[in-house]
Write a structure and sequence with these properties.
Helix content: over 70%
Largest sheet: none
Radius of gyration: 26 Å
Shape: flat
Low-confidence stretches: none
Number of domains: 2
Structural class: mainly alpha
Mean pLDDT: 80
Strand content: under 5%
Length: 127
């Protein structure tokens, strides 16, 4: 099966250009929002100077570098989460049925009273 960009290279170029334009627009919008919030809030509360659009863009870039924000794109915590899941799945598969039941019971005891888990859960379902 041919790839999409091999079948329609012109359409692929238009889509790529559209994505680039949307990304630039999103960055510009975020910069404008940061500038507006800074100038509306911090100038009056902390008595700091008002900033320009380019300074707001610099603040966004600096925050990305320092904190790795803007959603799931950074991947730093995302990989750790998958590694933990893989480790737990491997541990679960190596357990015998008795160990699994004991593990479940331990977690039920830890989570008792939270959203109906624990020994009181069957009583709630019967009511």
């Amino acid at each position: 099966m041919k790839r999409f960009w091999k079948k329609n290279p012109i359409l692929f170029i238009f889509i790529a250009i559209g994505i680039i334009i949307l990304a630039i627009g999103a960055i510009a919008l975020l910069s404008y929002i940061v500038m507006s919030l800074w100038n509306a809030v911090l100038v009056s509360v902390l008595a700091v100077k008002a900033i320009t659009f380019w300074q707001a863009l610099g603040i966004l870039v600096l925050s990305k570098i320092l904190f790795g924000g803007f959603g799931k794109g950074c991947g730093c915590g995302h990989r750790r989460h998958h590694a933990w899941n893989d480790k737990m799945k491997e541990k679960w598969e190596k357990m015998s049925p008795e160990e699994r039941d004991e593990f479940k019971q331990q977690w039920r005891n830890k989570c008792r009273g939270w959203r109906g888990f624990g020994e009181s859960a069957p009583n709630k379902a019967a009511e």
